[in-house]
Amino acid sequence: MTRVRVNVSKCDGCAECLGACPFLAIEIREGLAVIAESCLECGLCVPACPHAAIEAPEALLAGSRSGGVWVFLPEGDDGLGALTPARDIADELGRTVSAVMTREPDDPAPIFSAGADEIAVLGGSGALARRLAAAVRSERPAAVLAMASPVTDRVMARVATILGAPYVQGADDVEVPFGETVIYGTRPLFGGRFRCTLVPDPSRPLVATLNPVAFSRVRADGGKRGKIRNIEVDDFTDEGLKYIERVRSAVPLRLEDARVVLAGGPALGEEGFLRLRQLADRLGAAVGASKEAVEAGLADEAEMVDGREVSPDVYMAFGIDGSPAHNAAVAGSKVVVAVTENERANILGSADYIILLPPLRAVEGLLEALRAPGET
Amino acid sequence: MRAFVCVKVGPTRKGVRYSRSRGVIDSTEAEREVSLADRFAVQLAKSLGPERLTAVSWAPEEDEALLKQMVALGADDVLRIATPLTEEAAHDPLVVAWGLAEAIRPHSPDVVVLGAASIEHGRGAVGPMLAEYLDLPCVTQVRSASRTDEGVRLECREGDFLVTIEAPTPLVITALPEGVTLKKPSMLHLARAAKAEVQTVEVEACSPVLRPRSFHTTEARRRLRERIEGRDVAETARLLLSRLRDRRVLG
Amino acid sequence: MDFTLPEEVEMVRRMVRDFVKDRLQPLADQVEEEDKIPDDVLQEMKELGFFGLPFPEEYGGVGVGELGYVVALEALGGANSAYGNLIGAHTGIATMSIYLGGTEEQKRKYLPELCSGEKIAAFALTEPNAGSDAAAIETTAVRKGDKYILNGNKIWITNGDIADVVIVYAVTDKSLGARGGVTAFIVEKGFPGFSVGKIDEKMGLRGSHTAELIFEDCEVPAENVLGEVGMGFLIAMKALDVGRIGLAGGAVGGAQWLLEQCIEWANQRVQFGKPIAHQQAIQWMLADMATEIHAARLMTYHAAWKLDQGQRVSREAAMVKLFASEMANRVADMAVQIHGGIGYMKEHFIERAYRDTRILRIYEGTSEIQRLVIARDLLKAGK
What we know:
Number of helices of chain A: 11
Number of domains of chain A: 3
Oligomer: heterotrimer
Helix content of chain A: 10-25%
CATH architecture of the largest domain in chain A: 3-Layer(aba) Sandwich
Order of helices and strands of chain C: HHHHHHEEEEHEEEHEEHHHH
Distance between the termini of chain A: 69 Å
CATH superfamily of the largest domain in chain A: HUPs
CATH topology of the largest domain in chain C: Butyryl-CoA Dehydrogenase, subunit A, domain 3
Radius of gyration of chain A: 26 Å
Largest interface: A-B, 93 and 80 residues
Number of domains of chain C: 3
CATH topology of the largest domain in chain A: Rossmann fold
Largest sheet of chain A: 7 strands, parallel
Shape of chain C: globular
Largest sheet of chain C: 4 strands, antiparallel
Number of strands of chain A: 20
């Protein structure tokens, strides 16, 4: 039930409010404005009425600017990195940071030292998105952030929809530009070749998920403490999804999510790929392959780099010539290392570090260099 | 089972350029295509054996030829939202999801499938948003699907894990092409699809709440092109590692 | 005048172009070295509908007409010439002979299998003593009861080594000469007396084979007379008309691909401190290439369109074959020149294109024959 109401004694059916409603939730019936159930309580119609005929509770009209920055930390996710930009934004706007969780954490200390002023435990049961949206509606934070993950990708999008809020998915930057009071979000386009900075409607909270690769730094203000409180929220029905099975995938780390990617081309050969996987294990890296290597049966199709958006901190290409499709896929990487014997390889033009050695030997060399003394 | 698959027509990545003078992304020269993920979405939707599968897209009339190709991929018919969608508005997934919901809702869908990564956005925000507007559950990153007595059985990716989920219909699915080969339609099917009819529908669009402010290119990223040479393998390896650590990209 | 190509034709172009890029180009060196198109690639092409493009759906074809067929051959220009050649012989002239001259039963019997590529066809007209002088063929066909006995040999027959169905042109009545005395026969692999002789070693066109076909008292059932006795020459000429337009399409596609390679090379190759693309000499060569390709393309599309409309195209077919094949050779020559030394080296693909292109001026009617055809038509028509 919407809390925005039309005072029929003041309304003259001029329909100014219709134009102001972004969700077409107002219509004129029998000469009077009627607000539909689909109203999302954004409050934009209130100032639009020349007769002040639309009324809404004060809390609703306080606007999102007075709210704090929320960081949603789902259970089981490693999302503390999201508190870093939240802290920066809150400091810029003079607000507080609330870490929203579904249950009280066993050890709240790291959460406070990562930047949270308080931990708010979400009440209620059932559909997570509905509960979180209800909490946002009643407390009206300026922004709700979360580290992108399989859970948050689903939940945050639905939260934004329920609220009619601006939603930036996979942002690699969120900030308040100098002199502004609005939070801007930046996300990649076209596989990381471009980036787009988006500006949200200031009357709504910004909902955003953050790219873990861009927000890996976790603050450690050791000794910081805060309070823990509960947010009262209704119960909602569940989605009705049944989890049957959960197995670790044979292709463990998705290229898009990895901070270090080691990729091989056909020149690396079968033995080279074996060593590459060992090296990747050692570095906690994901393994990729050029299209040619996949076609030669040296790697799985799921490891193919060409045609995807692979932009890790480090991308190392062993024995890859670098077709245009391959190079475009990795153009967003922070640092590119090319190891090849081919002096005329295409990739050399887009590499930060070039090593002209047989790829297999280079891989072996790196394995050796990473070996702790005494290891075999 | 009444199924819908939402596809997006966008520029091929190759043909997109950054205009430094205007600070915008210019995709006017690029050829248009339906992304791999969206084409896989059609295949996944078809694999559920629906009585009728409609491909829906919010696209201008010029893209109808490409949309008809969805018939060659398994769709029975095509529905195009003819309401103009500005490039600016297209940056707000809420607007897109709203429009798609308006177009699909009257048909009481059992399954709606979308591609997990559209050409521009990369992580598939529209799916869960569309699900919310249709008041349906949503399962994301689905690699394969099959029908059960009560609904569907889905194999999905969740980070490092593969999970199996049973879900009731109606629901929304975002499909992730992982380790799949798309069936190539024969030219006979393409030629037949070219004669398919495209239905159009108008929707009342909502205004965007998120607007693009500026665009930047990462392409100009100047690469160092530093050669590490003239040393033996062991020293080269050590030098490379130390360079990477200095730049804080390796722990 | 609406110059836009029909949607289904554009779809064919896109599909073939992507196929060439994804599937065929990576195999270019392998096909050239092994002189063979891989079986799985051939199978995929059959499944995609490459073999029956111009024929109506009712006979198992894709139904995109001559224009769709031409556009497909043009799009194949970025791959080894072997593919276009195989399809050109199979679809363009051999299967086309059955489509243009066969009885309804023959069409229903053979066309579906040929359109799907389940069976491969070849067009056997040329003999040791009958090249440009096609009327001088000596292979004989003598009626014996309910069979014809064929004796003779055909040479340089494309697909000869893999063909399941061969359209063989033989003399049934020497006294009637070419018109009325030559009959076309549908000879199937396995007919007694039909064998494949030597497979030729050619200057280029690796991956596509030409072979000698030997007929020694070869028994062909009478119902395999294509159309009617004595109609052979007419069918051959009509089929060659159609084949010529397709060939021109392939020539345009190959030349276009060469042009694009030259532009890329000219932008990359630096001499005298700048890319050679900055040199006027190179620019003029590129301009000439592009202009000729553009002209050839438009006239070829027009001829294909006329054919699909059911209009007579003998003159245009000869013109486009003449112009496109000679243009392609000029373009190939300029391509070698623009690439300089590397254009001559086997490690690069330009020299292969140069060798492959030479045959275009010779087969399916030499340039000289095309000029004769055009001249005769001009003189007869007065304009």
